[in-house]
Design goal:
Bound molecules: gibberellin A4
Helix content: 25-40%
Strand order of the largest sheet: 3-4-12-9-14-7-6-5
Number of strands: 16
Structural class: alpha+beta
Distance between the termini: 36 Å
């Protein structure tokens, strides 16, 4: 596995922890092995040499920046974010809060063109920017899922990407804006070891979907948790994408991959903007371990459920809940 030395961090026990960086231009058999290894070890990796156009990224970034620079009253016209639109500080329906504002959109083109009217003075420009970005990041997600299929030697290597290619796919796009923010005086310092000037922008959680494709500007703040519960800061890279394993992929692989817990801290000096494509199947599709992943030695760990049932459970719990526990067998 290629591990960028600039990303190496030493823990107290002096174990080197590095975020895997995967070069998508490398030879296919090696590439699929590295993707599976990164999904197993971290549920998280960075991809370089991807095929998403620079202009697709910068156009959406400009549209996002233009929206967040509007007055609060103008922005609130695009809200609330339940289910889709503009949200400020509230995350989800159960009282979770963070130091951020955001746009949450369904990837269905009709929903986007409808929502764009309240978001932008040039709705066609905004919806084109969003649709182009979604198309490109969906392709990247499918490429990664096909590599997973190859690496796991699935009979149908496209079986995972098929889940998100469907026109009824419930995939989402989120643009988060973390204003530059110094921690409030009443902040609990135990939460912030080593980051005493930052506040929590988005609290610890895993993503419920199959895969998340994340990209941010060059401002740090994202942290991921290793399997042993150690928080590692992710050095930002505005040219590249980060990939996260979500809860649904944990179930599909019968626990061979684990969804990555992550959080975002604010930066006391600069504002951060991140964009996430959350790859999900249609609402009525079943999420159940792939047959190849279930053997007499590895019996199925989860009860079967539909994506709609899982979403319902996720939205009934707090952000940081271990929601997969509800679907574990035994
Ligand atoms: C986390 C991943 C995505 O941002 C999101 C979030 C959603 C929301 O902000 O509305 C949730 C959160 C996310 C998981 C648990 C529920 C739902 C907030 C929350 C408390 C859009 C998603 O799909 O799940």
């Amino acid at each position: 596995m290629v591990v960028a030395s600039s990303m190496m961090i030493r823990t107290k026990k002096t174990k080197a922890v590095g975020i895997p960086t995967i070069d998508l231009s490398m030879e296919r058999a090696e590439l699929s092995k590295q993707v599976v290894k990164a999904c197993e070890e971290y549920g998280f990796f960075k991809v370089v040499n991807h095929s998403v156009g620079k202009e697709v990224i910068s156009t959406l970034e400009e549209q996002g920046a233009e929206f967040f620079s509007k007055t609060a009253a103008e922005k609130h016209r695009a809200g609330p974010a339940t289910p889709f639109g503009y949200g400020c500080r509230n995350i989800g329906p159960n009282g979770d809060m963070g130091d951020l504002e955001y746009l949450l959109l369904h990837t269905n083109p009709l929903t986007i063109s409808d929502r764009s009217k309240t978001i932008s003075n040039d709705p066609i420009k905004f919806s084109c920017a969003v649709n182009d970005y979604i198309e490109s990041t969906r392709e990247l997600a499918c490429e990664i899922l096909d590599l997973v299929g190859e690496g796991l030697r699935l009979q149908d290597k496209y079986s995972l990407s098929k889940l998100i290619r469907d026109v009824q796919s419930d995939s989402l796009l989120r643009i988060n804006h973390y204003p530059q923010m110094v921690k409030p005086k009443s902040w609990d310092p135990s939460l912030m070891k080593g980051n005493s000037n930052s506040s929590i922008g988005f609290g610890e959680h895993s993503d419920p979907q199959i895969l998340t494709i994340l990209r941010s500007n060059n401002v740090g703040g994202l942290q991921i948790s290793t399997h042993d519960g150690l928080w590692i800061p992710v050095p930002p890279d505005s040219n590249e994408f980060f990939v996260m394993v979500g809860d649904a992929l944990q179930v599909l692989t019968n626990g061979r991959f684990t969804s990555v817990r992550h959080r975002a801290l604010t930066n006391p000096l600069k504002s951060r903007m991140s964009m996430m494509y959350f790859a999900a199947p249609p609402l009525n599709w079943w999420i159940t371990p792939l047959s190849k992943m279930v053997t007499p030695h590895n019996p199925t760990l989860y009860k079967p459920f539909t994506w709609a049932q899982y979403k319902q459970a996720a939205y009934s719990l707090r952000l940081g809940a271990s929601r997969l526990d509800l679907f574990k067998l035994q």
